[in-house]
From TrEMBL:
Region feature Disordered, mapped onto this chain: 244-302
Residue span, Disease resistance R13L4/SHOC-2-like LRR domain: 682-941
Protein name stated in the entry: Disease resistance R13L4/SHOC-2-like LRR domain-containing protein
Biased composition (Basic residues): 286-298
Predominant subcellular localization, coarse grouping: membrane
Gene3D superfamilies: 3.30.1490.310, Ribonuclease Inhibitor (3.80.10.10)
Keywords tagged on the record: Cell membrane, Glycoprotein, Leucine-rich repeat, Membrane, Receptor, Repeat, Signal, Transmembrane, Transmembrane helix
GO cellular component term, pick one: plasma membrane
Membrane-topology descriptor: Single-pass type I membrane protein
Amino acid sequence: MESRWCAMVLLAFLVLGWCECCLEEERVALSRLKPFFPLIDYTNDVSYYPVEEKETSLNCCEWERVECNPTTGRVIKLFLDAPRDEGPYGLHNRVPWYLNASLFLPFQELKNLSLGGNYIAGCVADQGFERLSSKLKKLEILDLSENYFNDSIFMSLSELSSLKFLDLSYNFPLTGSNHTNGIKMLSRLNNLETLILSRNSLSNNILSQLHGFTSLKSLNLQLCGLEGTVDLLAYDYVPPKENRQNQSKQALGYKQEGIYPSNSRPASAKYHPSKESTSYEDQKSARLHPKPLGRKNILKTSDSEIPAQLHTDHRYDQPEFQIWLTYPFTLKNLKELYLGGNEIESLGSSFQESRLMNLEVLDLRGNRFNNSILSSLGRFPNLRSLSLGGSELKGSIDIKELVGLRSLEEVEIFCWSGCSLLLQSFGSFPSLKTLSLGGFSFNDTMVTSDFPNSSVGSPRGFSSLKHLRLSSCEISQNFTLQVFQLKNLESLDIYLTPLANNFLEKIGAMPSLKFLSIWGCGLNGTLHVQESRLMNLEVIDLRGNLFNNSILSSLGRFPNLRSLSLGGSELKGSIDIKELVGLRSLEEVDIFCYSGCSLLLQSFVSFPSLKTLSLGGFSFNDTMVTSDFPNSSVGSPREFSSLKHLELFECEISQNFTLQAFQLKNLESLDISETPLANNFLEKIGAMPSLKFLSIWGCGLNGTLHVQGFCDLMNVRELDIAYNNLTGNLPECISNFTSLESLDLSSNQLYGKVSALKSLTSLVMLRLSDNYFRVPISLEPFFNLSKLKFFYADNNLMYVESEMQSLVPRFQLNRISLSCCGDVGQFPAFLYHQYDLQLQGQLFSSKFNLTELFELHLDGNYFSGKIPDSLSNCSSLSVLDLSNNQLSGEIPNWMENLSGLTTLDLSNNDISGEIPRWMGNMSNLEDIVMAQNHLEGPFPVEFCNLNLHLKLLDLSMNNISGHVPSCFSPFWISEVHLSRNKLQGPLTNVFRNSSILVTLDLSNNHLTGKIPNWIGNLSQLSYLLLNNNHFEGRIPLLLCNLDRLSLIDLSNNNLSGTIPPCLMITTLAEVSQEFIHYVSAVAEAPSSFSIDSPIQFTSKNNSYSYKRRLLRILSGIDLSCNKLTGEIPHQVENFQNIYALNLSHNHLIGSIPPTFSDLKKIESLDLSHNNLSGTIPPQLVGLYTLSCFSVAYNNLSGSTPEMTAQFSTFEESSYVGNPLLCGKPLPKNCSTSEPPPSSLPKGSTDNDLIDMTAFYASFVASYVVVILSIASVLYINPYWRRAWFYHIGEICKCCYYFLEDHILPK
C-alpha cells in the first residue's frame, strides 16, 4: 500500500509537472526578443568591470535575466533593461526605436517586465501595450524608465488594469500636460500603487491631473521642473463636514457624497462598453465620452454608490456643487512622496491642513525651502522617512518643530548656506535609525556630555541609531560622539568634514559598527582608536586624508575587515604590508600613493580571501617581484589563487617585472593604465585562462605586438591597448580571438590591412582610430561580423578597392565614424543597407533622411553655406557636432524639434543672429558650444530652464550683450565660457547653486560691481578668469576657501585694497585622482569633458590658449593692471608650485619677499610698474625654471642679481625705470666707493631714496633763514623799506579794482 501511494505521488509529479525548464512556446518568444534586447541571454558576472558572458544553458529559466515559476515553468519576470554604463550595449550607445509589445503576449503569467534604458521611442502602430491587457492579467510591475516615450504612452498603458508599479522616469519627450491624453489617463489603473515620473519635463501643469489616483501609495516627481507653490490637493477641495452633509441631502434627495460633476468621471468607476464598442479605438472613444447609463444605473466608487444619471443633470453644474464633488478622489492613501530636485518654495494646503495623514516617506531635497518649512512637517504622525534640503535654509535650525514625529526612522537634511543645529536634539526621535546631515556646524557648546533635561533629546535617545553620515560640516575640536552612546551604530560616514586628529579617540564604544568612512577630513599621522571599541569593523575607507606610513600599524587590528581603502599625500617610501598580515578576511584593497611609494606586490598573497586589488602611484622593481619567492611571512605566489580583479594605475614598473610568477589562474580582469611597461610585458604575462577583460591603456608600449604572450589571450572578451606607440601589422593570431566582443587599438602607429579581423564574429565594438591602417571604404573585410554595432576608424588611410563586390554586410551599425583620410570616391554603398541608420540619398540633399541617427559628427571639414534644413529629418539626434567649418546664417528654427538633443556644438563657424529663445525649452541639453561665431543680442533668460541638466556652456568670442540672468544657476554645470562678449552689469546670484563648477571664464566683457562673495562657496572651482572687466572693490577673502584653485586672473579691472595672503593655488596634477574622479562622477562628465574648450591666460608677456591636457599642469595668479595697494604677502606656502605670477601695474609698496626663492617651478614673474623699494633678493638666482622676469619701473636700489643661471638671460628691460639700481645688464655700474648701508645717517634705511628727517629739518631752517634775512634788510635800509611797502600797496589796489570790475556783483 505504501509503495502504491509513492507511485501515485510520483505519477502526479510527472503528469501535473514539477518543471524547472521554460516552455517551448516561451523559449521561442524569447528568441524573437533577442534582436531587440541582445543581452536577454547574457549575464554580468564580473563585478569590477562589466564583461558580458553568454549563458551556456539552453534552458531559458536558468538565464540571469529570466525568472520562471518553479512549478509551472512559465516565465514570471523579464529583466530586459539595458546597462547604464558606457559599454557596447549601454544606454548611451542606443538609438531610438519602436517596440512591438505583442511580442510579450506568450508570457501569460508575466508579473514583472523591466524595459528600462533601451531608448524605446514608442510602440509600433496598433501593437502597443494595450494589446497585453487581454492575456497578461497578472502583470503588476512595468519599468519603462530611461526611454524616449512621449505622452501617447499614457492611453496605451491605461488598459493594463493589473498594474501596481509603473516607472516612466527619464523619458525625454514626456510632458504629461495634455488634458486629453495626459497623466490623468493613468488614474484608470485602479490597482496602481507606485508611480514614478521623475526626471521628466512635467512642470506645474500636471498638478491638476493628479486627482483621481485613489489607490496610489507612492508618487515620485523628482527633478520634474516643479516650482513656486506646489499643492497636490489644490484641485481636491474638501468643504466643512456640515456643508457636505447639507449639500448631499439637498441634491435631488440623493444621500451619496461621492457625486461628481458632469464633465468628469471618477477614477475608480468601471465602464462597461456596449456590445458595439469592441475595438480598442471604440473603447478609447467611449472612455473619453461616456454615455449616460440611465436613472437606475449605479457606478461604484471607493467611498459610495453614485447615481450615474447625475452625469446629465445640469442642476449639478452649480459652482458651489462642483467645488467639492471631487472629494473622494484625493491622494488620501499616499504613503510615499518624492519631490526632490525641483524649485519648490512652499507646499500649500496639502501640508497646512494635514490631509496626507498616511504619509510615511517624504523627500523634499534640493528645493528652495526656508526655515519655515519645518513647521509644516510636524503634522504627519506616521512619517518614517524625511529628506529635506533647501537653498534658503539658513542660521539655526530648530528640530523641535518635528518633535511630534515619533515614528521617524530616517532623516536627511542638507543646508547650502551655513546652518547650525543641536545634534543632541535628534535624540527626541526614539525610532531613528538613519541620520544624514550636510552643511551644518556643531560646536562644543552644543554637544557636551551634560545634556539638559529638556525636550530636545538626550544621548540615551540614540540607542536605535544604526547609520550616521556627516557631509561638509564644521566640527569643533571638542566635538565627541562618545556621549551619544552609539552602541547599535552599524555605519559611520564622515565626508569632507575637517576633524581633529584625536577624533577617533573620543568616538566611544561602537561594538556594532561595520562600516567606517572618513573621506577627505584632514586626518594625519596614525589612526588614534582603540581597536577593542570597533572589533566588528568590516569596511574602512580613509581616502583623501594626510596619513603617513604609520597608519598601517593601526589598521592591522581589525580581524573582521573585508574592505580597505586608503590614500594619503603623506604616504612615502617603502610601504610594508606585513603590518596588515592579521587581516585574514580581507577581500578588497584600494591604496593610492601621491608621493612615490614602493612595496612588495608579493606581500598581498598573505591575504587568502583577496579578490580585488587596486594600487596607484607605486613602484615595483625586479628585486621585489621575481619567480623565486623567499620562504617568508609575506606569502608565496601559489596563494594568489583567489584574486579576480587587479588594477595598477600611474605606477612605475621595472623592465624585469612579470606577473607570470603569481600564477593568476582565476584573474578575470586586469587593468593597467598610465603605467610605463616594457615592450615584452605581454610575453611575461603568464597563463590567465579566466581572463575576460584586459586593458593596457597609455602604457608606452612600442614596437610590434609580441606574438608569444599576446596570442595566448584567446579567451578575452574585451581588449584595450589604446594610446600606446605600437607599430607594425596586426599578428595573424588575432584571428583566433573569436570570443572578443570589444577591441580598442586606437591611438597607436599600427599599419597594414585589417583583414585579420574578419573572423572576429563576436565583435560588437571596434575602435581603430588614429593609426595607419588601410581601411577599404566599403568595409568589406567586416561584412561577416554580424554583431558589429559600433565602428570607429578616424584618421586612417581610407581607400577604394579596385574590384568592388556587390555584397550586403551582415552587420547593422548604430554608430560609425570614418573621418579623414584618403580619397573615398563615391558615397559608400554599404551605408544604404544600414536600416538602423536609414541612410538614403546623397549627403545634405533634400532626401537626406537619417530618422534613427543618434549622433552626427561633421566637425573639422570645409562645409559652407547655411545649416541644411535636411538635417531636420534627423529627429532622434542626441549629439550634433558641426564645429570647425565655414557654416553661416542663423540657427534654424527646426532645431527646436530635436527634443532629445543633449549636445550641440556649432563652434568656430560664421553663424550670426541672436541665440534663439526657444533653445531654453530644450530641457535635455547638456552641452552647448557655440564659441567663435558672430552671435549677438541678449543672453536668453529662457536658459534658466536648463538648470536641471546643463553641464557645459561655451558662448565665448561672440557679441552677446546684456545681463546674465540671476536665475541662471545650473546644478550640474562644470564649465562656463562666456569670455570676449559684451556682457554688462553686476554678477548677483548667477551660478550661486552651481556647486560643482570647475571652470568659470567671464573675461573680456563689461561686467561691473564687486566680485561676489558666493564665488568662495564654489568648492570645486579650479579656473577663475574675470580679467578685462570693470570690477571694483576689494578681492573677497572668501576666495581663500577655494582650495582647488589652479588659475585666477583678475587683471585689468579697478580692484583696490590689499592682496589676500591666504590665496591657495595648486595644479590639477597635484590634486588627488579621487577629486578628479569625483568631479567626473557627480557631473557625469564624459560627454561634457569630451569638448575641449580653451582658456586664455597671459604669461611671459604673451597671451596663450591652453586646453585641458596643459591645464592639468598650469597654475598662475594674474592681478595686474588694478589699483592694489599694500605689501606683497611674504607667505608663499599656499602657492609654492605656481607657474606664473603677475602683479604688475598696481600701487604695491614694500620690498620683494625673499620667500619668492621658494617658488621652484615658477617660469614667469612680473612685478613691474609698482612702488616697490629695497633691493632685489639675491636668493632669486636659485629659480632655475624662471624664463621671464621683470621688476621695471619701481623704486628698487642696490645691485641687480648675479648674472648666473636663468638671470644671465634677462636684458636691461627687466630692470629699467629704477634710478638707484645698478649692475649688469644695466649701463650703470655699482661704485665701490659708495658707503655701505651701515654708514648711512641715523633714521635712514637702505630702502629709502633720501633721509626724510634731514630733508624736513633743512627745509624749515632754510625757510626761517630767508624770512629773517628779508626782515633784517628792510629794517636796516629805510629806502628799500619804503619801496617794499609802496609795491605792496600797489598790488593791493590792483587786486581790489580787479575784484570790483570782474568778480563782485554790481
